[in-house]
Structures are given as C-alpha cells and as structure tokens.
Amino acid sequence: MAKHIASPVDPAIIPQLKAGDSVLLSGVVYTARDAAHARMLETIKNGEALPIDIRGQTIFYAGPTPAPPGRVSGAIGPTTSFRMDAFTPALLERGLQAIIGKGDRGAEVIRAIKQAGAVYFTAPAGCAAYLSKCVKSVEAVAYEDLGTESIKRLTVHDLPLMVAVDCEGNDIYELGPQAWLSGS
Amino acid sequence: MIRTIHADRIADCVAELCVEACTVLPKQVRALLGEARHNEPYAPARESLALVCENCKIAEQSRIPICQDTGMTVVIAEVGQDVHIEGGTLEDAVNRGVRRGYTEGYLRKSVVRGPFDRVNTGDNTPAALHVRLVAGDRLKLTVAPKGFGSENMSRLTMLTPADGMRGVKTFVLETVRLAGANPCPPVILGVGIGGTFEQAAMLAKEALIELREGDHPDPVIDALEKELLDEINRTGIGPQGYGGLTTALAVRIKTAPTHIAGLPVAVNVGCHATRRAEAYL
Ligand code: SF4
Ligand 1, closest atom to CA B151? Predict the structure, then answer.
C-alpha cells in the first residue's frame, strides 16, 4: 500500500520511509535539472543567496514539455539523477530535504543523504503523460531564460513515487534486483 | 523520369511525424511491452510495466508526449535518385519541419547550440539528419526522436578479430550493466558489428530504429540476438531498475563487412520509449 505524504516532507516522518516503499506525494516541489543546478552551485560559490529557499524543500529533476493551451502541465517525468551528483551534497548541506529523480546515485550522494536525514525518491521513468495528470499548477520562479530547464514551482497531487534511497542509505537499485534474483 | 517534390511538403511531413512519433509509440514496441508484461514473473516489475503501458494509452488518447524527453530529432531521409527537390535544400526543409513540429506540437526543446556554451537553440534544431540515396522516385522520411537518458548509455569499442563473438557478448552485457537503471529499462538495444568506426555506430542506430520484425536472416546472428536477450534478462536489473526479469525487450543486430584487422562493435541503447514515425512522399 502506498503511503500518502506531503511535500515539503516533514523531517519527523523521514525515518519511517524505507527503500522500496511506494508513496503518493502531494504538495509543492521545485523542478531543477542540469543547467539550474550548475547556476545554483555558482551562486553558492559566490556566496550569494539562492533564487529559492531550498531549506526543507523537495527538488524534482525534471524538464517538462510546454503545456498546450487548456492544460496545466505538459508531459513531465524524472531525468537521470546521477548527472546532478556533483551538485547534490552542497544542496543537502543547505537543508534540501527530498529529491525526486530516476536511477542510482553515487556513494558520496548516498552518504550525504544519510548525513542530512534526507530522502531520495524516484518517479516512474518514461511515464510522462501519466505523471502530467498529477500536476495541479506550474509557475516558473527562477532562471526563466533556461526554458524547460528553469526552476518551476509545481503543486502536485498523488505523485506516485518509490523511496529509492532512505535516510539509512538503503538503495532500491541494489535491494530490488537482489530481492528478485534471490527469489528466483 | 525525374519526380519533383517541393521542400515545403518535406517540412510539413517532418512536422507531423515529430508530433506523431512523440505521442504514439509504434505498434511493435507496444506489442513487445504487452508481451513482457504478460511474461514478467516478479509482481513489482509487472506493476511497473503496467504503468508504462497505461502511460502509452494516455499519451495517445490525450495527445501528450509519451516522455518529457522528446529527444534530439534523428531524421533519416531515403531519397530516390530520381527525385528532384525544389524550393530549398533538403536540410533546410527538415529543420523547418522540426522547428514547426516542436513548437506547434508543444514538444520539449532539448538541443543546445554547442557542447560547451550550452545555449538552447529554442526550437530543437538542428535535426540529426542522415541522408541515403536509394533507387526510385520516392522520398521516405523516418523521424526517430532520441532521448538522452538512453543515448548517454550507448558505447562503441574497437575489438580485435581474436575477441570474436565472445568479445562482442561481453561488451554488450557490460554496456547493459553499466547502464543499469539510467536508460529507463526495459531497454531495446541496437547493435552494429563490423564496418569502420562510424559505420558501426550507424548500423547500431539503424538496427534500433528499424527494429526488424521476425528472425534475423543470418541464423548465426539470429542466435546471437536471442542469446544476448536471454543473458540481459538474467542480470536482474528489471523494469525501472527495481528488479525483475524484463531488463530488455529486444536486441537487434546489423552487421557489415569490416577490415582484416578489426571488429568494431557499437551498442545504441534505446529505452522503452523507442519512438519512430515514417512516411513516403
Ligand atoms: S531514456 Fe527514454 S524513457 Fe527515459 S527519460 Fe529518456 S526518452 Fe524518456
């Protein structure tokens, strides 16, 4: 059974989220992918303030298609997370609470997730028409010149996610295949 | 007899094919997904596959792209040598079509103008255009948008003749293992073996796009395809990388004559959203 949880994710529930759990996430998430991450890191290096306050927030690695008239959102889904690995620890250190992406993370990111008491969710990849139905509002909030790569504030309802790396560092990309192979 | 085709018709056709390819998964891929779902013994993996199938239905019915990564637009133009194109160049016509298809079709613009300055061109141009001159007086256009989650996991190596078939198998399996969950499994592999460096890559791309139906005409290659598929589906990676039987839906191989000293192998990794739309003019 999928657990219903809210975003921003309450730190108190993080210990209850275990790798392999299905969750339905509702609330506010921010999109950011390669170019937005590079800019945010540049900003941090320069000692300037980030365009959004990421403390306690959820970042969704996603660049949607444009919404046609009459629709809230275009197709939306996770992009490959490991490309953000170089940027992720710095954001976790600054209070980022949850991440949504796809694919496995490097050892350093898993360590940083543990240390921060954060969580890494994955969304079903290549299911962007389905996921677009979960998006209730979209608003570009920073780096609008980046087009699909801008930071957008989304309100989502029942986004179907998997806990991929929990706050103890357990990883579905190891545990899932192991569970299947050992059972067969 | 020379047949004349106006460039505007080519542009119109490409624009339509871009939208169709991004929203309607080829029947053949859908059939492979349905079959995999039916044969998947691991319940969580079956659920993942069911979601992928459901997504394709929604995409087609609501005309929403199957995946938000509507790709870099690979266009294959097979031009009959009795065709004369008037009103502009083929390349311009194709790029006009991509620009219109991606803009008016609300597809994602994912192309940057240079590898280092990374400025988005804003209209998904230029297309990755491949032109082939063929017999006849027709023009066949194939549009195959390629997402980079899977493209990034593709690899090429120059083996030696002594590495032989074993070397090829090892390389293909290693590619799948390295890719893991990143190319959105279940994957489809196009494998090019032989030729020169660039020919091997192109063979792999063609094998993936053409997605030949039925057995390979060469029984040795046919057996290799089946053996690879079997081995890949024993890695345990599974749909979405969460574990399961269905790591790949299909392996397609194309071969070509090569040099006495060489055995090039290219693996073009495709995701379950291996998209393609084609038309004749
Ligand atoms: S690899 Fe394929 S399914 Fe995955 S995000 Fe890219 S285009 Fe979509």
Answer: 1
